[in-house]
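Subject: Protein record for review, amino acid sequence with backbone structure tokens
How to read it: Take the token row as a discrete description of the fold.
Enclosed: The protein record, placed directly beneath this head.
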Amino acid sequence: MKRIFSAILTLVASAALAPAVHAQCTNATLTGNYGFTFSGFLAPGHSTKGDEKPFTGAGLSTADGAGNLSATYSASSNGVISTNNLYTAVYTVNSDCTGSMTSTDGGANFTFVIVSNGAEILAVDIDAGQTWTLDLKKL
């Protein structure tokens, strides 16, 4: 019995000390429909003098697995509502599950991390004067 316990303990310890296997992501990791929300502040003219405007919204996006994303969303910018807004972008996913999304229509650009094997994407706007985050969840 002592031998069996010792062998099991050795296996458990070896597994715990083994290097972690990191997820390997590609553009194909982002495939399908994602619901999303975003919020933060817009700073017209990149101002930092207190005239930042709150910005929030939600929508639906589709990633094709080949680096193209399109979305439709509704937003509120300082209380002014807009609906049926369109957004298109190209994205690049790195093997460590980080990536970037570049707008093809003059919209926001993001850096992101993919979590839960593509079930969720956490992103932050990287444009000057913008301070907002984006959270996409796979449907």
About this structure: Confidence is low (pLDDT under 50) at residues 1-20. The domain at 23-138 is CATH 2.40.128 (Lipocalin).
